[in-house]
Amino acid sequence: MTETKAAQQVAADGQALFDQLISEDSRIEPTDWMPEAYRKTLTRQISQHAHSEIIGMQPEANWITRAPSLKRKAILMAKVQDEAGHGLYLYSAAVTLGTSRDELVLQLLEGRAKYSSIFNYPARTWADIGAIGWLVDGAAICNQVPLCRASYAPYGRAMVRICKEESFHQRQGWEILYELSHGTPEQKQMAQEAINRFYGPALQMFGPPDADSPNSQQSMAWNIKRFSNDELRQRFVDMIVPQAEALGLSFEDPDLKWNEERGHYDYGELDWSEFKSVIKGNGPLNSQRLKRRREAFDNGAWVREAAAAYAKRKAATDHALVV
Ligand SMILES: [Fe+2]
Ligand SMILES: [Fe+2]
């Protein structure tokens, strides 16, 4: 058998096993054969997800020094650290697909990679920290719980821990808003304005409408995605409407009402032109977010150099001990 023929045989056997594992709803491990398109899609999705966790630290980190009490500062600091941890698990999962972490980070720093458009919006008031926790982390949970069963095993495993932590994040956001909405009229007003700002962008976190989301079909066929963008968005709306009622707040959406026939809440058309513009880099804070990330990366260069020098020296010492 020639070398090309042998390679073709390996690919055919690999594809057959891959198809079987997917049809059985089993999992693909990093050492398994997988189609290039599957590898590429996952590398893009997982690394974008990692970038979102890392960039997402910025709007909240800006509020650590201004949080209204020591307890609030401690909680917010822990949440921001959780997000850094999520970024790290996800970069580790992405690296198992064959692209180095250095390259993935470079894609972000050079503006070649996307991250969730929600993080290009500012956190203007303390109530925005509540709205981000409740609505942004809440939307993330709706999106991510089904990803715990994603066919690519390292991604699914990372998502299990991430989802547990996201539940805390959502609760702390809801609790901030609960305190404000049961405080002075000014505090309640601040909470209402925060959710007015985040309602639309949070609903857009599920991505474009199904008819406008050409890659979703393939991701569903590969058992990466389990529900469509619109299904997940609907699930989220159905969850947050009663929660908003419990807060004594409401959403600024005249079309938002219970539909008896469908057994779901109807909601208004979202501003997709704004969504596309933010994705293209024209959101309120796109350039500032990337600038900060580049500065943080440059400021951390000495830490990376010191860690690499230490690892090298330790490896040499360990080797000398073994010999
Ligand atoms: Fe997170
Ligand atoms: Fe979170």
UniProtKB/TrEMBL annotation:
<protein>
    <submittedName>
        <fullName>1,2-phenylacetyl-CoA epoxidase subunit A</fullName>
    </submittedName>
</protein>
<dbReference type="InterPro" id="IPR052703">
    <property type="entry name" value="Aromatic_CoA_ox/epox"/>
</dbReference>
<dbReference type="InterPro" id="IPR007814">
    <property type="entry name" value="PaaA_PaaC"/>
</dbReference>
<dbReference type="Pfam" id="PF05138">
    <property type="entry name" value="PaaA_PaaC"/>
</dbReference>
<dbReference type="InterPro" id="IPR012347">
    <property type="entry name" value="Ferritin-like"/>
</dbReference>
<dbReference type="InterPro" id="IPR009078">
    <property type="entry name" value="Ferritin-like_SF"/>
</dbReference>
<dbReference type="InterPro" id="IPR011881">
    <property type="entry name" value="PaaA"/>
</dbReference>
